[in-house]
Amino acid sequence: MSSDDVGSPQQLISSYWVDRHYTIAKVGADWDKFAIENGGEELVSPQIIGQNLFSYIASDTTRMYLRLILDHVWHIHHQANKPYRCDSPEIKRFMQMQISIDDENLLRLDHYLLATEPNSPPVHFSGIRSQNSNLIRRCSMCNRINVAFSWVDADLALKTGLITDPKQRVIYTVCGDCNNP
Ligand SMILES: [Zn+2]
User: To 5 degrees, how large is the angle CA 80–CA 40–CA 3?
Assistant: First the structure.
């Protein structure tokens, strides 16, 4: 997600449903509008329905983490709420993912926007695939980066000089705080 059109707080941003095999079964009414506004012509519903959800998640760690949460909902809890961040360069977006099993025995994922704050300064990081452990790691759930032995907001790290490149390349992972489904 990358649109700066953040809308009003507590807004349902997108919904989709997956089956037992995590195949995308259907999407919410606003999905295609959302996909096109966010520059994802390849993400419109005819392209994604029938595809595996996890094929759209680049980071191995993030994929494993989400898989664990979704497996928990199927087998144990039957619903869960997970806060996460979906920042654009200019805006911190505080999101919540609500996962439940619906009447058709599909797993329903609703993504809500809870609040926004400006990123100051803007953060233009890009994720790369690498085994190089010297690269900076960024949590794909809370969007913080790992510098100076702690996890901090990217704009704070830039503002305080912990990092200097606003176009820093990062490896996406899941931090210890977020990794507790
Ligand atoms: Zn995190």
Answer: 70
Compute the distance from residue 167 Cα to the ligand 1 centre, in Å. Answer: 20
Q: Indicate the residue type of 116.
A: T
Q: Which amino acid is at 63?
A: R
C-alpha 172 to ligand 1 mean position (Å): 10
Q: pTM for the whole thing?
A: 0.83
* pLDDT of 121 strictly over 80: yes
pLDDT tens readout for residues 52-64: 999 998 888 899 9
Helix or strand run (H / E) with residue 64: helix 60-72
- Ligand 1 centroid, distance to 149 Cα (angstroms): 14
Instruction: State how far the alpha carbon of 45 is from the alpha carbons of 5, 23, 126, 129, 168, in Å.
Output: 21, 13, 26, 27, 32
Provide, rounded to the nearest whole percent, the portion of the chain with pLDDT above 90. 71
Question: pLDDT tens digits, residue range 149-173?
Answer: 899 999 999 999 999 999 999 999 9
CATH class of 11-118: alpha beta
State in Å: Cα 174 to ligand 1 middle: 5
- What pLDDT is stored for residue 181 in this prediction? 59
Domain residue ranges of the chain, discontinuous segments joined by +? 11-118, 126-173
> What are the DSSP E strand ranges found in 76-106?
79-85, 91-101
For residue 19 the two structure tokens come to 């089956």
